[in-house]
Every structure is written in C-alpha cells, then in structure tokens.
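stuck on whats below:

***
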Amino acid sequence: MTILPYSINKRETWNKFVEESKQGTFLLDRNFMDYHADRFFDCSLLVYSDDVTETELNDESLIALFPANWVEKDKTVYSHQGLTYGGLITKASVTQSEVLKIMQKILMYYVGYLGARTLVYKAIPYIYSKVPSQEDLYALFRAGAQLEGCGVATVLSVANPLVMRTLRVRKAKKALESGFYIERMREGDEACLREYWQVLGDVLATYHNTSPVHTADEMALLMRRFPKNIRLFVVRDTNARIVSGIVVFETENVAHIQYIASAAEGRKYGALDLLLRHICGEKYRDKEFIDFGISTENGGHYLNEGLIFQKEGFGGRAVCYDVYKVELKRNRLLKMSEIAPEAGRRCVPFLDLKAINESYEPELSDSMMRAMQSGRYLLGVENKAFEQEWSNYIGATNTVLCANGLDALTLILRAYKILRGWHDGDEVIVPANTYIASILAIREAGLKPVLVEPDIRDYNIHLKECQKALTEKTRAIMVVHLYGRVCCDINNIKTMAGENNLVVIEDAAQAHGAQWQGRRAGRLGDAAGFSFYPGKNLGALGDAGCVVTDDDELAHVVRSMANYGSSMKYVNEYEGINSRTDEIQAAALRVKLPRLDIDNEHRRQIARKYMNGIKNPMIILPLWPQDDQECVWHLFPIRCAERDSLQKYLSEAGVQTLIHYPIAPHKQEALKHLEHGPLPLTQRIHEEELSLPISPIMTEDDAEFVINLLNKFVK
C-alpha cells in the first residue's frame, strides 16, 4: 500500500475519485475544498493499493482519499477544518479489512512525516453515503478513538416524514395569503445573492452576535463552480423585497439546508415556514433526506432548544455529526515501533509488548490503580475473581493461581506424590522437544523425566513413543501443547493412561484458548499448568501462572502447597513453597481475558496469510490443523536447513525472529547427567526451527512484508 500527499497535479484524479466513491459529495471536490486554501495547511493523502509499485501507480490503483489539514502548533491533523465533514473517502470495492490497513497506514504516515500527536476526525454522516460505508468508524474504534464532539442535525426522511406541526402549516398559509412568493435565484444573479446576504448578516449579528462563515464573494464563487449543487431560495413580499431565504447544498441523496434567515417582516408573516414547506413537500421529493443542519454549539455541549424545536416542527429528527479524537501514541492500530527507526528501513518486531499493553488502555491502568487502592496485595479480590473467570473460560472446576508456569507444573507433580503415594525416582514421560521448564518441574518434584521423541509433523509428543517408554515405574505423562497447538494424540494418550493407571498432565503454557473437539486446553488431562508470562497469548505484566483441574482434592493440596503448605494461617499441612500471584497481575489478566479469543483469531489470520503466501521450497511450514480452533499460534515455527543464514537475512531487512529453542533440553549443561536415548528428531527441530513475528497487533501488511522477504531468500 502506497501513501502519497495531495498535490495540485492530482486535482483531476482526486475529483474523479470523489465522484465515483462510496461517500463522495461535491463538498469533497478540490474546487470546493481549495476556495479557502490560504486558511489551511493542506495535508490530504491519496492511498494506492498494495499490489502495485510506486512507478506503477495510476488512477485504477487508487483506493482511498483522506482530506485533511495540519496545525503545527498543536501537532494535530484535522479532517478537515474547512469542511462540514471530512472523513475517509473510499472506492466502492474496498472492504472492512482493507479500511483497517488504510487507516493504519495513514496514521503511520502522519506520525512519521509530520510528527503528529493527534488526529481529529470529522466523520461523514451516513445519510451522505451512496451505499453503507461506515468501515471508518470501526477502524476508529480499533484505533482507540474517543468521541470529541457531537453535532445534532435535524433530518427529514422524504419517504417517511413525520407530520408537520399545525403551527408551521398555519404560518405558511398566512405568508401565502399575504402575497409572499418564493423565488429561486437564477444562475449568475449575484444581485439576489448579495441582497439576501445583507438580510442574513443582519439577522446573525442581531440575534447571534456572529456573521456568515462564507462571505458573499465566496458564496458567489462557489455557486459559479457548482451551479447544480448550490442553490439559493428566497421569499419576497408584495414589494419584491427579500424577507427570508435559505441556501441548499444538493448532493445525490441529501438536500442540506444552510444559512436560514428571516427578516422581521418575514418572521411576522411566516415567510420561512412557507419556504421550508415548499422545500420539504415539493421541491426535493427526489431526495432521500433533507438536512436542516445542526442546532448545537461548542462541539455539541450546548443544544439550542428553540432552534431545534423549530426545525423538528417540519417533521425531522436527529442525525449526529460525530467528531473523534485519536491519540496517536496510544491507539490500537498504530505500533510506534513500526515507524522506521532509520531512514528507509522498516522494522517488524517479533513481539511488541509495549504496543500490545497500550492497546488495553486506559482499562489496564485503571485496573492497576484499583488493585493498589484496595490495600490487599496478595490473595485478595482480584485473585479470586480471575480464578473464577479463568475457570469459567476453560470450563474447569478449579483454578489456583501461583507465581509462574514452572511452579504450576511442579505443584501438580508434588501434590500427586502426596495424594497417590508416588516415590522419588518414579517416572514421568515428557517430550524431548519442549522448553526446559517442563523437565525442570519433574526434577524439582523428585521424579525422573523420561524423554521421548515428538511427532515431526506437529512437533508434539507421539503416542507410539509414549508406549515404548512405559515401565513399571511410570506414573504420569506430561503432554506439552507446544507453540500453541493442542497435542493431536491427546485422546489416545488418555486411553493409554487409563489402562495403565497413569495421570495425564498438560503443560498448557503456550496454549491459552486452544481447543480439541470442543474442549479447551487445560481440560484435556487430569490437571494443567498455565504460564501468564508477559509474552504469552494471555500475558500478565510480570510472572504469573496457574493450575487448572476438576479434582477438588488436588486443587486443595496445590493451593496449600503454594502458600507455604498452609490452608489456615500458621497451620502447615505440607512442606510447601511461596508461590503466589500478586493482585496487580491478577487485575491485569482480568482486563485482558475478555479479548483473548479475538486476539487468538487475529493470530490465526496472520498464520493463514503466512501459510498461503510463503512459497520458498527451502522453508518447511508448520502443519495446519484440521480444525482452526486446535491452534492459537503462540508461535509460528518454520524450519529451514539454513536457519542461521535465514535469521541473519531477515534481521538485516528489519524483521525480528527468535529460535524456540536454540539448544535442546537434553543438550543443556544443566541436564548433562540426564539419562536419555538417541533423539535425532528433537535435535533436528532445534537446529532448524525459526519463529516468525506473530501477535494480536501485527498487521497483514507486515505479514506480507515478511512473506516477500522469505520468498526471495536463497542459500
């Protein structure tokens, strides 16, 4: 997608696009916008589709316009101060997803080139659009926009008008009986315009202490430029003097009434009622709406009730002219780290935690304050509330918060040792292809990890390898849902476990929200450990973890052991540890949990784009699950025999990647005494794996950038 600033040589391109767009009216034509160009610093933009290069740009690839002006002292972009409305103008074929991308690129442009801090957005009211076209409002919501102003206009639906008040009808009849008559200004009759502008100016000065926005000269200029769109209607008395009038701005759907005024004589005899009855009941029957204009002041904070009562008397009701404000450093579309840190160099971060957390503001900060002000910082209200909310989400009976994911697994194993009478040295089958924490938990509990090879297709534990590893000392199988993907052998593993009186423990540290056959990870085994490390799909602002189980007795032991082995203060049942989640972390998790499924779906969209777009035969893609819900794509792991060269190549192009994990657990110095057989598949994965950027705020444009780089990579 290419962004270009508007220039005079693009005038005809701009105007043609406005005419053919979904939302365009003549007010957005450059011949209208530029009549007062000296008052504003224009910073309007043209947006071209992403399937062309800059040298290939043409009118056919133009997909959007953004009319705007810049105020340097405020570091603010307005869309547009010289217009009644000035929102995004798009091609009819543009979709919601594309508008999200367009809005992000526009915001990035203004931050990168102007150093903008704020965008003030004047949305186009829906009545002016030729077809439904409020994609921009959803994009504003995603950008964290706040409603800054709301002008209330009175709009009459021509096909379904409300009944005109009797008073308005009587006054119109009185004007007609008094010999008043309606006249439409003939094209070029500037004498009529200037006579009415004198009446208008007197009324505004006397009753409102103001003057018309447009001078008579400016209005004359605009009427010459748009003779079919701007019309003046006046009422004359028996002496042919103008006693009332209105200006009408005609668009395809709407007759917008402006500059309504009536001299003393006109008010006495109901001249304006006569004119408006003619406009509403006869003249513009071919339009969908008649817009009487706004009746609010001060950004909508003051409603002129007398004025709006008068307008409503003709059968109209409210339509809002909304104005939004976007703080560019705290919005949900723009990632500040994506603004090129060096000239001409793009940066795609592996995971921008700062930007992710900013997308939860101000709710996240509010939750922190709530927790701090509570006066209870451990084992308080926030902990209890999140435990219940997470249990409800998983569909489990018990959630027990603890300090981290490693502790969660360790506590489960230690609790089972107590409840089932396991002994030191009893065995737990665990995949060799995992993060070392899975193995450390087993050793910390005094048990023996038995490493088995993964399934090379999905990188998770393999049923046949588990069967081969069974001995009389086997007590449990630890299933790791690696990279965010549920272990596909889980049902068969549970069957085998049941036949051998084994416990199935889920290491679900990377699988928040993943499902297998309608059940979420965490409810597929006997107990599960989760990590809420900041980089997880559901991440806290520091370390946190939890145990999930339907076994009430196990939950009781885990909860006690995590609190020094105590369920009652100063009474210790077990040799426990100190492993607790503080209230601030629990509060943060409560803010983030409602968006988890949405964020996971965004990860799937990025993953799907990678899967469909990466065509380089040197790259092995992960296996796509049969059911989308089986994987939440905590990581997007590819494999490449030239992994180190590929990582260096991507880094030099501005794309950050990570290796999960550079050293296999059985090769770690810390586990050098661990007994194990040959593990060639595990070793191959750890030599070839490379994780691409993926996150809930990553854009499809960034994914496309990564894809293009990958497809160009050669040895």
Confidence is low (pLDDT under 50) at residues 336-344.
